[in-house]
Write a structure and sequence with these properties.
The complex is a heterodimer of chains A (177) and B (313). Chain A has 177 residues and is of the alpha+beta class. Chain A is 20% helix and 23% strand. Chain A contains 6 helices and 10 strands. In chain A, the strands form 4 sheets. A 4-stranded mixed β-sheet of chain A has the order 8-1-10-9, with helices on one face. Chain B is mainly alpha-helical and 313 residues long. The chains are: A alpha+beta (177), B mainly alpha (313). At the A-B interface, strand 2, helix 2, helix 3 and strand 6 of A face strand 1 and helix 4 of B. Strand 2 of chain A pairs antiparallel with strand 1 of chain B, so a sheet runs across the interface.
Chain lengths: 177, 313
């Protein structure tokens, strides 16, 4: 099992509903977020191209954060989801520095926090909160090891890119272009 | 082509707009740990080589400061942690892939070793020194009996301590400035250089001061070579590493790096050391202070600049 997410950059309107849904679902402290919107404007007027992406932890298959964690608090969990065990985390910040996507942040309680792909929902067969609320249905979540899953099918059909694969992380967020 | 990037919804403290997770504590520890590693390296090396009489400052006097340096450094590391009450989790895991893990274990070995090493010379250096408890006397005799074995262990861990601080940073491929294997040897050379500077400062005999002045000169030469080599490597690498190098070649860190680290911390003391070797009288305190200042600034600048260097996507 290999959980992954596909984000349709052609459908995403950048409404930030995924951000708010995540903050509510996971009781993310005020002023912090586990997912965010990136808007890239390319070119000079009037030749402009815009891309909107809903971003979060890439749950990399070769995670630098898991590698550099001195206590094993950062680890691969259910279906390859990268998680942090709060009572094992010493808050040294090594994983935050190691993430090329800057997806992690120090929780006010001291441990390091990040997107969990809503593992508590996924284990019950529900999609992550951000996917469930998306009004344009531009987020796809599923198991890429299963060739018949929705995400596998959409990745077969559409062109996609991954963010800085040259950082050697083998990320699992696919941005449909 | 002009590109505009807007990130909305994200303003995580200590992460945005640029990474700011490590503050003064980490570079201060890297510096103190480096100096201690340098001193202990020379202490154990020359002890193993049987130069006890010739280099008393390196083997007996200078190691006296290392427990204080290491404990101060450990205190700084502890202050840096965000989840302080759980620091002991470091010692429930040995993770080969994590340089921070083996650094934590190396400190666990070398800190008590530096205390024992220093304590074992107290009687010799301060005639009339007495241990209050008999078990300490027994411990001392036992340590002195096996001092050569401990010297070998200390030599190994001094190198580990000196080099790991660089490897720790170079393991972060997310920060292009740190992600170079030159950083390990550079920090090791800097730690040997600053260690030699402390020994120079504490040396009483002209011979010992002279030898460590020479060692320091060689170390500065190696550091300069590695710095040039590092920037050459960056310039021939990917765009993110070219950008990282440009922070020092015209960017915001240019003046502070080339003036405080290279000029004041390396070229000037090297010049003074050459003058001294040529027979001029140069106050050793000036040379040592300059070398230590250079080592201090090197750690600070690399830690801060590394956090500012990043992938853009």
């Amino acid at each position: 099992m290999r959980f992954a997410m596909a984000i349709d950059t052609r459908k995403c309107v950048g409404c930030s509903d995924c951000v708010v849904a995540c903050q509510t679902e996971n009781a993310v402290p005020i002023g912090y977020c586990r997912d965010w919107i990136v808007e890239v404007n390319d070119g000079t007027y009037p030749q402009l191209v815009m891309e909107i992406r809903s971003e979060r932890c890439n749950h990399c298959s070769n995670s630098p954060c898991v590698r550099c964690c001195p206590t094993g608090a950062s680890h691969y969990d259910y279906g390859g989801i990268v998680l942090v065990t709060p009572h094992k985390c010493i808050g040294c910040g090594a994983c935050i520095a190691s993430c090329p996507y800057d997806a992690r942040y120090p929780h006010p309680k001291g441990y390091v926090d990040k997107c969990t792909f809503c593992v508590h929902r996924v284990k019950e067969g529900l999609p992550p909160a951000c996917v469930a609320v998306c009004p344009t249905k531009c987020l796809y979540f599923g198991d890429t090891d299963d060739p018949r899953s929705e995400i596998s099918l959409v990745l077969k059909k559409r062109k996609y890119k991954r963010l800085i694969p040259e950082a050697g992380t083998n990320p699992n967020l696919y941005f449909l272009i | 082509m002009r590109e505009e990037l807007i990130i909305s919804g994200r303003m995580n403290p200590m992460v945005d707009p640029t990474l700011n997770i490590w503050h003064w504590q980490i570079p201060l520890y890297l510096f103190l740990g480096g100096v201690a590693a340098g001193i202990l390296f020379f202490a154990s090396l020359y002890y193993i080589m049987g130069r006890e009489k010739k280099y008393p400052a390196a083997i007996k006097w200078a190691p006296m400061v290392t427990p204080f340096l290491l404990i101060l450094g450990l205190a700084a590391l502890f202050l840096d942690l965000n989840h302080k009450a759980y620091f002991w989790q470091l010692y429930l895991a040995i993770r080969i892939e994590s340089p921070m893990s083996w650094g934590a274990w190396a400190l666990m070995v070398i800190t008590p070793l530096s205390i024992a090493w220093s304590a074992s010379w107290l009687k010799e250096l301060f005639p009339g020194w007495h241990w209050k408890y008999t078990f300490l006397e027994e411990l001392e005799t036992w340590f002195i009996k096996y001092r050569l074995i401990f010297a070998w262990i200390m030599l190994f861990y001094a190198v580990v301590l000196g080099v790991y601080t660089g490897i720790l940073l170079s393991a972060f491929n997310a920060r292009p400035l740190w992600n170079t294997s030159i950083l390990g040897p550079l920090f090791l050379a800097s730690s040997l250089s600053t260690g030699a500077a402390v020994i120079m400062l504490m040396a009483k005999s002209h011979l010992e001061r002279n030898i460590f002045s020479r060692i320091d000169l060689i170390m500065i030469g190696i550091e300069l070579f590695l710095i040039v080599h590092m920037f050459m490597g960056f310039q021939a690498s990917t765009q993110v590493q070219i950008d990282a190098a440009n922070m020092f070649l015209g960017g915001p860190y240019t003046e502070v790096f080339w003036i405080f680290v290279v000029l004041i911390g390396m070229l000037l003391p090297a010049f003074l050391e050459v003058l001294e070797l040529l027979g001029y009288k140069i106050p050793i305190a000036i040379t040592s202070t300059l070398v230590l200042t250079g080592g201090f600034f090197l750690r600070f600048i690399i830690v801060y600049a590394g956090q500012a260097s990043r992938y853009l996507y």
